[in-house]
Design a protein that fits this description.
Largest sheet: 3 strands, antiparallel
Helix content: 10-25%
Radius of gyration: 10 Å
Structural class: mainly beta
Bound molecules: zinc ion
Strand content: 35-45%
CATH topology: Rubrerythrin, domain 2
Mean pLDDT: 96
Number of helices: 1
Number of strands: 5
CATH architecture: Single Sheet
Order of helices and strands: EEEEHE
Shape: globular
Strand order of the largest sheet: 2-1-3
Distance between the termini: 14 Å
CATH class: Mainly Beta
Number of domains: 1
Amino acid sequence: MYACKKCRYLTEQDVCPICGGEVSKDWQGLLIIVDYSRSKIAERLGITINGKYALRVR
Ligand SMILES: [Zn+2]
């Protein structure tokens, strides 16, 4: 699993399917957003797509 360096989206692909950004294997913390419109964390992180995200990406 890779994490996008820009939006932190977790993906199996080597390019982020959301923003097309560079991905990294060096990430920590798993955040699952099931309904971003109701999530305060998603709002704070600027997440507008449901899915799995890393909390930290290097
Ligand atoms: Zn991305």
